[in-house]
C-alpha cells in the first residue's frame, strides 16, 4: 500500500449537521464516524473485505464492536451507506414542483459528481488518487456481499422515488407508471457510476472527467425526459 492516507469519508455525501455550527457532541460523532470509515476501508483494501472483521476494525480504532454497530448497522455499510440526509435530498429534489423528476435526479447526481471531482482536485498526487478510487470500485464490484448491499441501496432509493412520483402523479405506488418511472430515474445513478469508472483512467484531468461523465448521464437522461417531463400531470386514462 502507498504511504498516502485516503480520507474516504470525504468521498461521501456531507452529513446533516456537518457545518461549522455543529456542537461538540456532533463534532465528536463525526470524528468517530470518519475514523471508522477511513480505518475500515483501508483495512478492506489491504486485506480484502471478507478477511477483515468488525472486531478487528474496532480494535484498531480503540472502540468496542458495539460502538461500530451504533454508527453502522452492518459491516457492508462501513463501505457503502445511504445517509438519511441524502435520501431526504433525493425525495425533496424529485418532489420539487418547479422541476421535472429527471432534472431533480440530475441535481442529486451533479452533487455526487462534484463531491468526487472536488476530492480528486484536492489530492496532491492525482494518479495515486485515481488508483485509490479504482481499487475501491474494484473491491465493491468483486465482493458479493458489497454488490448485494449496493443493490439494496438502489432498491431503497427506488422505493423512495416511487413514493414521490406516485404523489406527484396522483397514482398509487403500486401502479406501474410510478414504478417504472422510479426505476428509470434511479437507473441514472448506475449510469453515472459506470461512466465515472470508465473515465477515471488516470489520463483525463478532473475537469475532463466531469465533462465526460456529465455528458453521458445527460444522454441517458434525454431518453427519459420525453416520457417523464410531464409525468406529474398525467393521470391514468387521460394521457
UniProtKB/TrEMBL annotation:
Cleavable signal peptide: none
Protein name: TetR family transcriptional regulator
DNA-binding region per UniProt: 53-72
Annotated ranges, domain HTH tetR-type: 30-90
UniProt organism field: Streptacidiphilus fuscans
A Pfam family annotated for this UniProt entry: TetR_C_14
Protein's UniProt keywords contain Transcription regulation: yes
Xref: SUPFAM superfamilies: Homeodomain-like (SSF46689)
InterPro entries for the chain: DNA-bd_HTH_TetR-type_CS, Homeodomain-like_sf, HTH-type_TetR-like_transc_reg, HTH_TetR, MftR_C
GO molecular function, one term: DNA-binding transcription factor activity
Assigned keywords, A-Z: DNA-binding, Transcription, Transcription regulation
Amino acid at each position: 500500500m502507498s504511504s498516502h492516507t485516503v480520507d474516504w469519508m470525504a468521498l461521501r455525501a456531507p452529513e446533516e449537521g456537518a457545518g461549522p455550527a455543529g456542537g461538540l457532541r456532533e463534532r465528536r460523532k463525526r470524528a468517530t464516524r470518519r475514523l471508522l470509515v477511513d480505518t475500515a476501508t483501508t483495512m478492506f483494501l489491504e486485506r480484502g473485505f471478507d478477511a477483515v472483521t468488525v472486531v478487528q476494525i474496532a480494535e484498531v480504532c480503540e472502540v468496542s464492536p458495539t460502538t461500530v454497530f451504533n454508527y453502522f448497522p452492518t459491516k457492508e455499510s462501513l463501505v457503502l451507506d445511504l445517509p438519511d440526509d441524502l435520501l431526504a435530498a433525493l425525495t425533496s429534489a424529485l418532489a420539487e414542483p418547479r422541476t421535472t423528476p429527471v432534472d431533480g435526479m440530475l441535481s442529486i447526481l451533479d452533487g455526487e459528481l462534484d463531491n468526487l471531482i472536488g476530492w480528486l482536485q484536492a489530492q496532491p498526487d492525482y494518479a495515486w488518487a485515481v488508483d485509490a478510487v479504482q481499487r475501491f470500485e474494484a473491491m465493491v464490484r468483486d465482493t458479493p456481499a458489497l454488490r448485494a448491499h449496493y443493490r439494496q441501496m438502489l432498491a431503497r432509493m427506488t422505493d423512495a422515488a416511487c413514493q414521490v412520483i406516485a404523489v406527484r402523479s396522483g397514482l398509487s405506488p403500486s401502479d406501474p407508471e410510478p414504478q417504472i418511472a422510479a426505476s428509470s430515474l434511479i437507473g441514472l445513478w448506475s449510469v453515472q457510476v459506470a461512466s465515472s469508472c470508465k473515465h477515471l483512467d488516470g489520463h483525463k484531468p478532473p475537469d475532463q472527467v466531469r465533462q465526460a461523465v456529465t455528458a453521458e448521464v445527460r444522454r441517458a437522461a434525454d431518453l427519459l425526459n420525453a416520457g417523464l417531463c410531464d409525468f406529474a400531470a398525467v393521470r391514468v386514462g387521460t394521457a
